[in-house]
Specification:
globular
Length: 492
């Protein structure tokens, strides 16, 4: 075999380097044609309204109105019923996404919604503590697959840079649920005595029936995987798959392998995303589930407390919109997550982290509730889309997203158990202090991720400019290497 001259060798290295550089530029290009803009709008209209509505319903259905006296529940038993929901949620999230990966979202997500709607109706029929415990566990099991499933579904329809805003809109359904939930609970509670049932029973029954009705329509709206999406024309589908393929993550069906599951469980970044949500989830679910109770502790009547949950949740939805827009504009994630946690700490958690801990008047403490809601919901909206953008490989990403929610919701279990009556003294002072600790922990994790991801991007830039790393494999092994590929750049 003839020996390659030094000149030819350098020429070949230059060609490969140019090829890699061009690929790198293509993968990170922000250019978009009018055709692409139309395609994305069409996908938005098909996915966002129905999926956000399903998530809003899940947040409504998981709430528990005050009914402890009717079921002869002790105060600790009430908190246990809340915790059992999240225990099931934690157990079934990863298995649910594995099933989704091997199944079809068009059938799986509406079926989950249908089943939890039936379970919600059953919540309105429980007559004792054992029945409540069992039905809450079933509700957690059936709702577990929705959030991680939708986040994964977004990843096979949107480019990495497009997912952040869509996840924020989707998660905004939680804030809207808090706003509308207070109004609905107040209004439906007026049905007290109709049909021989209490007002809280009608809340569950009517919300469950609404969920069942919407789930049936969801079978005709929720799409399948992008490579076989029937709501797109063939040219649109080809363009979508081309865009996704150019975004470092092939859109065509990836064969399920347990090795990809192992990759997620052994990636320290995946665990960091999970730890980040763990800290935030403590605050999120304590806030969303106990806000009426804590507002009542400020001296307001119970009916007033239901209505007073509306303004903080509305502010949270507006805060999500503004902060996510800024995050996209400046292409930064960690710094806004850190700022959101700081706002929550300064303002309050349920009703007072620092403001809540230091303010003495109900009005000032209620202002603290607004700051807490804005910070908590905004931080969660940003962090929950992070692994969807930074984990490549379809199966690995599906597991990573579910792992984040699973481990995060262990924080939710801690939250609902810590905000219990025997710690309610001094307006939940001790639980609020613990919540501050959880948020400080989240700030530490976000800071670590920002440092590590930025450093890794710089390291890959340096390697890419080195001749020793130029190899045709750097382009063709994208699917095998995923986010470990030299061309892959993390969002931080």
């Amino acid at each position: 075999m003839p020996e390659i001259s030094q000149h030819e060798k350098e020429k070949e290295e230059g060609r490969v380097a140019s090829e890699i550089s061009a690929a790198h530029s293509a993968l990170n290009s922000d250019t978009e044609t009018a055709q692409d803009a139309h395609l994305v709008r069409k996908i938005d209209l098909r996915l966002l309204p129905i999926l956000t509505l399903l998530y809003l319903l899940s947040f409504l259905d998981r709430s528990l109105p005050p009914f402890a006296q009717d079921l002869n529940l002790s105060a600790p038993a009430y908190n246990t019923s809340l915790a059992l929901y999240f225990v099931a949620y934690v157990i079934f999230e990863v298995p649910s996404n594995i099933v989704l990966k091997r199944f079809d979202p068009r059938l799986w997500l509406p079926t989950l919604t249908l089943v939890w709607g039936i379970v919600t109706v059953c919540q309105g029929l429980v007559a004792n503590q054992a029945g409540l415990f069992g039905i809450r566990f079933l509700l957690g099991a059936t709702e577990a697959g929705l959030f991680p499933g939708v986040i994964y579904l977004f990843s096979v329809y949107y480019l990495r840079r497009e997912r952040r805003a869509r996840v924020a809109i989707f998660f905004g359904g939680a804030a809207l649920a808090g706003a509308f939930g207070g109004i609905l609970a107040f209004a439906i509670g007026k049905m007290e005595g109709i049909g021989g049932r209490r007002g809280w029973q009608w809340i569950f029954i009517l919300e469950g029936l609404l969920t069942i009705l919407i789930s049936l329509s969801a079978y005709f709206i929720v799409p399948s995987w992008s490579y076989k999406a029937k709501f797109l024309t063939e040219p649109e589908k080809e363009r979508l798959l081309y865009r996704l393929d150019s975004d470092t993550d092939p859109a065509h069906k990836e064969r399920f392998q347990w090795a990809h599951v192992k990759q997620a469980f052994t990636d320290h970044l995946v665990w960091s995303y999970a730890l980040l949500f763990h800290g935030y989830a403590f605050a999120l679910y304590s806030l969303s589930l106990f806000m009426p109770t804590i507002i009542t502790e400020l001296g307001f009547q119970s009916w007033q407390a239901q209505l007073l949950t509306v303004p903080p949740n509305t502010l949270a939805a507006l805060s999500i919109s503004l902060t996510v827009w800024l995050s996209i504009r400046y292409d930064r994630r960690a710094v806004f997550i850190i700022i959101a946690a700081a706002v929550a700490i300064i303002g309050s958690f349920p009703p007072r982290y620092i403001v809540l801990l230091t303010a003495s008047k109900p009005g000032a403490q209620y202002v603290g509730v607004h700051l807490a809601a804005a910070g908590i919901y905004t931080g969660n909206a940003l962090l929950l889309s992070w692994p969807g953008e930074n984990v490549a490989g379809q199966t690995k990403r599906a597991v990573a997203v579910a792992m984040q929610i699973t481990f995060g919701d262990i924080g939710a279990i801690a939250g609902v158990l810590i905000y219990r009556p025997n710690l309610a003294g001094h307006e939940y002072r001790k639980p609020h202090i613990i919540a501050i600790g959880y948020l400080l922990f989240s700030i530490m994790v976000a800071s670590h991720l920002r440092f590590w991801l930025a450093r890794e991007n710089r390291r890959r830039d340096a390697l890419l400019s080195s001749k020793t790393t130029t190899s045709p494999e750097s382009i063709h092994d994208r699917q095998r290497l995923g986010d470990h590929h030299i061309l892959y750049r993390y969002v931080y």
